[in-house]
């Protein structure tokens, strides 16, 4: 399965693509979408949307993972980050990709083993886990870490979803049996 991870930001949006097969993961690509700050907000959001669409067309992911927005002390920054995240999510949805969301705490815990790890620790672990020659940029490392988190969580999520569907199916059959009998 090819997974696209996104670390959204209004100035810098990181992306990372990995190939996952069981517990084996392999680096495919990563980068940072740098959005000119002098553009009006709507053009900045469109730049994020267009660039993520291009990444999707180029790398053809099967699934995607997106970092959830955290609420910080500045509500304006939180709102702007949410809009950048929305532009990224629209690009993913427009390409018919499933979008799984993870908090920074979940991502860091999955990659580093510590939900309060520093950015440098995430970069080093991503480099190590993907056998990269050099240290990825902070934005790329965060996006790759998001994809790695999804690669580890997805098999469990699929089992839970399958179990949930079989439970719902069983309940429907039971209800139908009561209606008939």
TrEMBL record:
GO terms for biological process? DNA recombination; DNA repair
Q: Where is the composition biased (Basic residues)?
A: 172-181
| Locations listed in the record | Cytoplasm
Q: Required co-factor?
A: Mg(2+)
Keywords assigned by UniProt, alphabetized? Cytoplasm, DNA damage, DNA recombination, DNA repair, DNA-binding, Endonuclease, Hydrolase, Magnesium, Metal-binding, Nuclease
The entry's free-text remark on the cofactor is: Binds 2 Mg(2+) ion per subunit.
User: Which residues are catalytic?
Assistant: 7, 67, 139
Substrates-to-products reaction catalysed: Endonucleolytic cleavage at a junction such as a reciprocal single-stranded crossover between two homologous DNA duplexes (Holliday junction)
GO molecular function per UniProt? crossover junction DNA endonuclease activity; DNA binding; magnesium ion binding
Q: Which InterPro entries match?
A: RNaseH-like_sf (IPR012337), RNaseH_sf (IPR036397), X-over_junc_endoDNase_Mg_BS (IPR020563), X-over_junc_endoDNase_RuvC (IPR002176)
The keyword DNA damage is assigned to this record: yes
Top-rank EC class of the record's enzyme: hydrolase
Query: Which Gene3D superfamilies does the record cross-reference, listed alphabetically?
Result: Ribonuclease H-like superfamily/Ribonuclease H
Q: Name one GO cellular component term.
A: Holliday junction resolvase complex
Query: Main localisation, per the record?
Result: cytoplasm
Indicate which residues the UniProt annotation says bind Mg(2+) 2.
67
Q: What is its EC number?
A: 3.1.21.10
Instruction: Name the protein family.
Output: Belongs to the RuvC family.
Q: What does this protein do?
A: The RuvA-RuvB-RuvC complex processes Holliday junction (HJ) DNA during genetic recombination and DNA repair. Endonuclease that resolves HJ intermediates. Cleaves cruciform DNA by making single-stranded nicks across the HJ at symmetrical positions within the homologous arms, yielding a 5'-phosphate and a 3'-hydroxyl group; requires a central core of homology in the junction. The consensus cleavage sequence is 5'-(A/T)TT(C/G)-3'. Cleavage occurs on the 3'-side of the TT dinucleotide at the point of strand exchange.
Provide the protein name: Crossover junction endodeoxyribonuclease RuvC
Q: Which organism is it from?
A: Advenella faeciporci
